[in-house]
DNA sequence: TAGATTGTTAATCGATTAACAATC
DNA sequence: TAGATTGTTAATCGATTAACAATC
């Protein structure tokens, strides 16, 4: 899948930023492959696809690679996103400190009952009815859904109406982008993840294999 | 990847349970494919791999399919898991109601400071120092990590020492199963997900494509 | 130079799909 | 019977890797 390629690029970038902060200057396809769990050949291929030059002997210059990755992945921070559903999970996300490091900012939360949660954090919380306008006026492109599964579909519709182009969905329903709506959906179904882990764990004993990630 | 196959099986199961509760009795590979976003041929192939018989004319019997899927995926509920890190995200998970529906139960939380969070929920919270013993004594196989990234690696080590075989990691570091440790790791990196969405959204305009999930 | 690493091609591998005979 | 759907084979497709010439 093409998305895997993008995910790898992001992983390279994160790793390289750490390496840089440790004072390193060069890396080999070898090192990168080990760290993110792919073959060195694939690293080189990926870099070659985004026209990243290395030195036949000295590997890749970290600075250069980061610059080019930023170039390709888009660097413009902060990434402004909205959040629908300010229950337990929603509030945890609003207060999630790591977002700042990635240049991600939740600029507003929305809930059917905005009063109940307004005090929860410094992120303003509005009524869902205001979401379409807010998203439109602020040209927000990414929305996070953390509402109960029964409401997830409707909330996604609202987001799309406001012009949201990418949705990260935590509700335990599989949301899909209707064909031709030019919107990307990423579902995070925690229950499903755990079930799959369980299956893999229970069936690993036979084979003895240890799949990664 | 083999994991995709398992994920599909779980999705079939969830969908079929919903259909069953709506009173349906039969499905066609067609319907299932539409719903979870794969081709009918793949549905039939998946079912054939787990020796699930259909009727040439009448599709598949929902009851039968669910039974067989339970058979393959393992039905024994409740699935007992532990949670390390009882901060914002950890607490949200402890109170996550959907787990019950999937037969998942967080039986204990662990934190460096158990006092601070003990009152947070009905799930007991202990000191991390007690995690190894607890996991061992209760034969827990799955652990959720919701600690800061700097602690994630150590926490995973503790889990493995206790006998945990599957890890769901929310810390923004890529945890990996060391080769030969027969442990499965699933990383959920929310920041990374959002970054990838952003990339996809920004680059979709050109192509006009709308990739799903 | 000898040794090591990139960049790229061709081969491999696995997963998905097209297609169709079997059959209800 | 005619129509529809399964079950399975062979073809396709795409992603990954092996391998090696180029070269620092």
What does this structure look like?
2 copies of one chain form a homodimer. Chain A is α/β, with parallel strands linked by helices. Helix content of chain A is about 50%, strand content about 15%. Chain A contains 10 helices and 8 strands. Chain A has helices at about 1-20, 30-35, 40-50, 60-75, 90-95, 100, 115, 130-135, 150-160, 190-205, and strands spanning about 25, 60, 80-85, 105-110, 125, 140-145, 165-170, 185. In chain A, strands 5-4-3-6-7-8 form a 6-stranded parallel beta sheet, sandwiched between helices. In chain A, strands 1-2 form a two-stranded antiparallel ribbon. In chain A, α7 links the parallel β4 and β5 (about 125). The longest helix of chain A is centred in the first third of the chain and has 20 residues, at about 1-20. Chain A is globular, with a radius of gyration of 20 Å. Mean pLDDT of chain A is about 90; it is low at about 205-213. Chains A and B meet through α1, α5, α6, β7 and β8 of A and α1, α5, α6, β7 and β8 of B. Chain A binds a DNA duplex (24 and 24 nucleotides) through α3.
Please render the helix and strand layout as text:
The structure is a homodimer of 213-residue chains.
Chain A: H1 2-21, E1 26-27, H2 29-36, H3 40-49, E2 60-61, H4 62-73, E3 79-84, H5 88-94, H6 98-101, E4 104-111, H7 114-117, E5 125-127, H8 131-137, E6 142-145, H9 149-162, E7 166-169, E8 184-187, H10 190-207
Parallel strand pairs in A: 3-4, 3-6, 4-5, 6-7, 7-8
Antiparallel strand pairs in A: 1-2
The first copy, chain A, binds a DNA duplex (24 and 24 nucleotides) through residues 1, 4-5, 28-30, 38-42, 44-45, 47-48, 53-60.
